[in-house]
UniProtKB/TrEMBL annotation:
It comes from the Bacteria. Residues 320-424 form the UDP-glucose/GDP-mannose dehydrogenase C-terminal domain. Its EC number is 1.1.1.22. Pathway: Nucleotide-sugar biosynthesis; UDP-alpha-D-glucuronate biosynthesis; UDP-alpha-D-glucuronate from UDP-alpha-D-glucose: step 1/1. It catalyses: UDP-alpha-D-glucose + 2 NAD(+) + H2O = UDP-alpha-D-glucuronate + 2 NADH + 3 H(+). This is UDP-glucose 6-dehydrogenase. It comes from Chitinibacter fontanus. Belongs to the UDP-glucose/GDP-mannose dehydrogenase family. The keyword NAD applies. It holds the Pfam family UDPG_MGDP_dh.
Length: 443
């Protein structure tokens, strides 16, 4: 099948490369000429395990191409996936300018039946706006080509994106057009050969499904974070509570880890965008407002613990930070809790040495020119002369460190752990002061 993917970011690249792997002829469009030039050399601008090899293999096989040429990319695909960003507007609603620009561009060059598939996360009703944007361009050109608009939201997670795409839990296809539905099923059938995981539904339900899924997951996280904070004052252990409730299959173990608040390019913006839609239609989601508020507070939890220990004036103190990316296995810093922590430490007069296995460069760009902050190549280098170690992201490399070396490097043996990587008992035995989330503190 001939497929065009508009937008070569996380979702566009993964979609394009994975569909090429299944034998489709794929052209990926991006308007960022520099990005396209790099991709044409096989260089991928994001860190995503397995993605670069997949892209290179399919480019070599002649099934995957990158271009900045809008006309050529529209001409190529019978299916046109839109996978551009939908960032939060000032009021929190989804900014649809990139989606509608992509739709207009399709309309400018459309001259035969095509299926326009929206993979970006968009508010309910966006399919109608996409239809209008395409039709407006056709009318301008007095062109009478037909087309269908489909909602096909993406559920992949960064850090596991290729695997998630190749082995989906479900594929949601929202359309009222049978021809479009058949084409979409044909594209995805090879990915779900042994399981019937394709869910067909109307457009609006498909659009809402995406927000509902992210909002539900974000709700679990905020609830666990509140329970963790309550556990601390009650003298309970959130890790035991997590296992105790997760063992009930109606609850399940996934997405029950308390921490430093959810970050990333999606949960924060999608929770707000769904709330905006709900308010526009006079049905505000009270739970979702609480989810958002709790998350904002939780992002300060490490700074609060640090200030409870050292006082609010941190001048003259130096902190080691392990983990900058919003989660492991990605270099994505969007809405990362580490940014809130570092801003807070610097604002209180402290200095910081931070290490992340892959996000150092992006963080250095983000904080460019800020005094009192350095990034280290190795985790242990960050610890030298620090008053405490603060763990923000649960990279595997941080799980079994040499505690004797940590103690030797730090000025005082204190760990603030935002991800509960270590057992409090072990910390007691190592004689390290330990501040986890929702568990016994070792003072
Ligand atoms: P991204 O910012 O990584 O990439 C978007 C790309 O689109 C950029 O390279 C940009 O240059 C390009 N672009 C913008 N306008 C364009 C246009 N008119 N024509 C061609 N290219 C254009 O974004 P992303 O993380 O891939 O997210 C895309 C959408 O998918 C968002 O709606 C997001 O909510 C959703 N989503 C993201 C993830 C994720 O893990 N990142 C997962 C599921 C869904
Ligand atoms: C999330 C969803 O999991 C994907 O299904 C969805 O497609 C995607 O958003 C999207 O729409 O973009 P992602 O943001 O890549 O994926 O990462 P997650 O693994 O969901 O983690 C999000 C945040 O929640 C991270 O900051 C993570 O640390 C935090 N989290 C996650 C917790 O604090 N506790 C948990 O138990 C799980």
């Amino acid at each position: 099948m001939r497929i065009t993917v508009i937008g070569s970011g996380y979702v566009g690249l993964v979609t394009g490369a994975c569909l090429a792997e299944y034998g489709n002829q794929v052209v990926c469009l991006d308007l960022d000429a520099e990005k396209v030039a790099q991709l044409q050399q096989g260089n991928v601008h994001i860190y995503e395990p397995g993605l670069e090899e997949l892209i290179r293999r399919n480019m070599q096989a002649g099934r995957l191409h990158f271009t900045a040429d809008i006309g050529a990319s529209v001409a190529h695909g019978t299916i046109q996936f839109i996978a551009v960003g939908t960032p939060a507007d000032e009021d929190g609603s989804a900014d649809l300018q990139y989606v509608l620009a992509a739709a207009s561009n399709i309309g400018r060059y459309l001259n035969e039946y095509k299926v326009i598939v929206n993979k970006s996360t968009v508010p309910v009703g966006t399919a109608d706006l996409v239809k209008q944007a395409v039709q407006a361009q056709l009318d301008l050109r007095q062109q009478r080509s037909s087309f269908s608009v489909v909602s096909n939201p993406e559920f992949l997670k960064e850090g596991a994106a290729v695997d998630d795409f190749m082995r989906p839990d479900r594929i949601v296809i929202g359309t009222e057009d049978e021809t479009a539905k058949d084409l979409m099923q044909a594209i995805y059938a090879p990915l779900v050969r042994n399981h019937d995981r394709i869910l067909s539904m109307d457009l609006r339900s498909a659009e809402l499904t995406k927000y509902a899924a992210n909002a539900m997951l974000a709700t679990r996280i905020s609830f666990m974070n509140e329970l963790a904070n309550l556990s601390e004052v009650l003298g309970a252990d959130i890790e035991l509570v997590r296992k105790g409730i997760g063992s009930d299959p109606r609850i399940g173990y996934h997405f029950l880890y308390p921490g430093v608040g959810y970050g990333g390019s999606c949960f924060p913006k999608d929770v707000q965008a769904l709330q905006q839609t709900a308010m526009q239609f006079g049905e505000p989601l009270k739970i979702l407002q609480a989810v958002h508020d709790v998350n904002r507070l939780q992002k300060n939890i490490l700074l609060n613990k640090i200030m409870a220990h050292f006082g609010s004036d941190l001048r003259g103190l130096h902190f080691a930070v392990w983990g900058l990316a919003f989660k492991p296995d990605t270099d994505d810093l969007r809405e990362a809790p580490s940014l809130v922590l570092i801003e807070g430490l610097l604002a209180c007069g402290a200095t910081v040495a931070a290490h992340d296995p892959v996000a150092n460069d992006k963080a250095a760009q983000y904080f460019a020119g800020r005094a009192g902050l350095q990034f280290t190549e190795l985790p242990m280098q960050a610890l030298e002369q620090a008053n405490a170690l603060v763990i923000v992201t649960e990279w595997k490399a941080f799980r079994s460190p040499d505690f004797a070396s940590i103690k030797k490097s730090l000025r005082s043996a204190i760990i603030f752990d935002g991800r509960n990587l270590y057992e409090p008992k072990r910390m007691k035995a190592e004689e390290i002061s330990y501040y986890p989330i929702g568990r016994e503190q070792i003072l």
